[in-house]
Amino acid sequence: MCWATGLNREINLDKDLVSYIIDFSRHIAGRSEITAIALTDNYASQSSDGRIIHTAILISHYFQPRIMSYLRTVKNKTILVFAVDQWIFERDVDRGLLGEAIAGKLVFPYVALHGNEYLRAIEVELKKRLVTELLENLVMNFPELASSMQILPQYFMYEVFSSRIRVFPLLSYDLPDLSGLAQIEPDTLISYKTALAQLEAEEKVKNQSGYVTITKKFIAQCQDPKLRFINFSKNAPRTLFTSFFGALPQLMNVVSQNTETFIRTQKINWPTFPNQMVNFIDSQKYVFFPTSQGLVSLSDKIDIKGFTQRMLLKGQSANIEVEPVGGVLNDVYLINASGDGGNTKVLAKRFKEWSGFKWFPLSLWSFGTRSFAVSGQARLAKEIAASEFLHSQGFNVPKILHVSNAERIIFMEFIDGEGLNHAIKRYAIASNDWVASEVLNSVHRFGDILAKVHASNVSLGDTKPDNVLIKPDGTLYLIDFEQALRGGDKAWDVAVFLYYCGHYLQPFNSNTKAEAIAVAFVEGYLGAGGKLGDVRKAATSKYTRIFSIFTMPPIMLAMADVCRNAELPKKWPP
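Below the sequence we write its predicted structure tokens.
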């Protein structure tokens, strides 16, 4: 017998079984009006052959008691019905009153035996809320990348499936292979696309060529710090109620059909149990962000060797050299591929985790002045977001070629140039006026560039002269954006650059050169529209105390005096 499901599919069910469930549900409801009956055994993706227990939900108007489970055995088949009052059920849909223990059954394929239109409408309402929560989580977990993410609707479907299995592992027995759901994916996505269309009407998302993008309006709404706690706290009732209402039917089917496996699993740890039983589809492979070479998935796991073979060689033979080129807090490698097609150089940067003792001194060092992104994931996201944004605004930054989010590696264009820190070191010991003019000109131009970066409402966070590259033709490139922020502390950027420059000067008799560097930078910065208040703020003790541990006091004082007494910009060169 054919029956329409909430996924708009038709499947074959035993006619007598359906009749038993409907009759049993009418008996349970009594005088209460039945709103809907649904068979929730995931029949749309697998056969019912061999099942011992069949689970259904009964939604009834003014049902008393409000919620109750009922068992009946007919011809060696056990029917378990979860009966729930319509008001309770709808509160479980729109706010998770029962941790979605009942409403959540509509997340998986089900069969509507009565009230198909009601179930389809309530299914869309539930998925709209779940999609909204997933969007909120993406914004909170990837704040820098959220505005540039491009998401396929499949992400929401597979993330909802897998998140519920993580909460309640026994669901894995009903879904032994999530990849099998690909067969019903088009039908399953209908309700998600309907929910996304409603969210688009509310200006929370946009549909761009089949990809979902998150609007700036919605991102702004997610800035409330209470939201993270609210979303996190939903897992507790979700786990409690799902386990309570799902345990009986799942355990009966597990023991009856998987006795040997069930006994074996009693000897292993639950945290690893789902991964052994379920072939998960990684939902993050449907979430992308742009690079200069196209879209890259969040689930990409390519390593340096894989990138070299797939992206650089492209099946051709070549000589490959991978050389570490420094990096204390990160691993940095230069990949040099030479062959018939020429020579290609790519820089690979792996973001280490900074948690632990080695990060503790740096936290104390800047306490009260500047907070830092510590996790490798957060710093990688900042690097990607800031680099792509600055590139789009016309600033000279290395192009991002590829990203492996899982491996925390960025592959980027290699810029052949000298760090401004080396030029400062030459200036520190030079007596040649030509060297001084050349270096101060570069400092002035960096001040100009930094002011324009700040005008775009970005602070770089790490403006050491080491992170400014000078190409042979004199072009300046900015690198290293893992501490960059939208907004942020502009005065910090000014202070980091100047006082790090001071660190490279000679310990004694360098006050004049320190002042010249500060004057060149400040005039370039203010001349390009930088704010005078940020320059003067960099001279306050809030900033100077931090850098006093490695820059000589006379040099610090000379630079701070220039910032403190800065006025309207002067013409450059004089």
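The chain has 20 helices and 22 strands.
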